[in-house]
């Protein structure tokens, strides 16, 4: 991502309805994984650290981030509560393989040119029986200049993510779309951005409090469905992956 994108993320991820809702959804999904009480958790591509407090509900959290600006912002934001190291996936990982019960790639895989190498690397970081949690943006036909601004390499479909997991010799335990309820609004806005050639996505900033809270409430209700079932469409994808 560009430095401007990281600064924007640092300003918005604590309060923006999308970041808040995604954390709510992922916390519900993680609650169903039966992680050990002292689980060791790694987030690869932790950005400015917005997911770390949520992940800490489930164990001891470490993180790796390649961008110096994001790394510094994350350390400042979290007050040194987590072991956040400089590194790059898949070729410069600062943690030993076989060290973690859970490895998270949350909005990360789409930034990495060698996504099969990155997923394989994440799997090799796992202890026996561990899991990789992945979230990515969905639908290549929604590609816009905003994806370029964020330094995305691609967007995914359910089929392409399943194919990636299979190519790496891993097992897909679960896959689902999410951000479903608001997808008609989001798709309309993104297609409008495409037509206008906008480099900044409509709605990237935090909206007025009442609107922000309403969008968060609606988006986060998806956690109730995702606690036990999958959603058939949405502008994001999540997957739980394990070694075969």
From TrEMBL:
Residues annotated as domain Methyltransferase type: 42-133
Annotated keywords: Methyltransferase, S-adenosyl-L-methionine, Transferase
Keyword S-adenosyl-L-methionine set for record: yes
One MF term in the entry's GO annotations: S-adenosylmethionine-dependent methyltransferase activity
The keyword Methyltransferase belongs to this UniProt entry's keyword annotation: yes
Pfam families reported in the protein's UniProt record: Methyltransf_11
Gene Ontology BP term (one): methylation
CDD domains (UniProt xref): AdoMet_MTases (cd02440)
Listed InterPro entries: Methyltransf_11, SAM-dependent_MTases_sf
SUPFAM superfamilies, per the entry: S-adenosyl-L-methionine-dependent methyltransferases (SSF53335)
PANTHER family, sorted: METHYLTRANSFERASE, UBIQUINONE BIOSYNTHESIS O-METHYLTRANSFERASE, MITOCHONDRIAL
The protein's name in its UniProt record: Methyltransferase type 11 domain-containing protein
Species of provenance: Cupriavidus yeoncheonensis
Biological classification of the source: Bacteria, Pseudomonadati, Pseudomonadota, Betaproteobacteria, Burkholderiales
